[in-house]
Write a structure and sequence with these properties.
By secondary structure, the chain is α/β, with parallel strands linked by helices. Helices cover about 45% and strands about 15% of the residues. It contains 6 helices and 4 strands; from the N terminus they run ββαβαααβαα. It has a 4-stranded parallel sheet, covered by helices on one side. Strand 2, helix 1 and strand 3 form a beta-alpha-beta unit. Helix 3 packs parallel to helix 6. The longest helix is centred in the middle third of the chain and has 16 residues. The protein is globular. The two termini are about 20 Å apart.
């Protein structure tokens, strides 16, 4: 299974496979038809508090990542992660859609790491929290 990342504002492609919006807010100015979203997982997105915190501190990527992984272990978010894993297991390709202008540091990047089999992240970026989420998903 291929996991792709794409800004929701980019045109859909046949290579995208199943398209999942992983933001809490619907993208500004996008119609449902234009976005071509197959599933919108609001509960998998960072909390509004964390999103706003990171927006005002873009250099704090390691701390954002750590806090986000902690949020993913909460019941509603964990259920969404499990749903995402189940979909990814059935599809040849899945594209995680996000609205952020930062292509390398956003919540979809963290989710891709989880789907890609938990490649071991550096300790400073919340490896323990990532492993906890992965264990919880596998245990269910």
């Amino acid at each position: 299974m291929a996991v792709l990342l794409k800004r929701v504002y980019e045109a859909a492609s046949s290579r995208d496979g199943f398209r999942v919006l992983v933001d809490r807010l619907w993208p500004r100015g996008m119609t449902k038809e234009a976005a071509k979203v197959d599933l919108w997982l609001k509960d998998i997105a960072p909390s509004d508090e964390l999103r706003k915190w990171y927006h005002s501190r873009p250099t704090q990527w390691p701390k954002f990542r750590e806090r986000y992984l902690e949020e993913l272990s909460e019941p509603a978010a964990l259920a969404a992660v499990e749903q995402l894993h189940a979909i990814a297991a059935k599809k040849k390709a899945i594209t995680l859609l996000f609205g952020s202008k930062n292509l390398e540091r956003n919540n979809a990047v963290v989710l891709k790491e989880l789907l890609d089999g938990m490649k071991k992240p550096p300790h400073s970026t919340g490896g323990a929290a990532a492993a906890k989420v992965a264990r919880q998903v596998r245990a269910r």
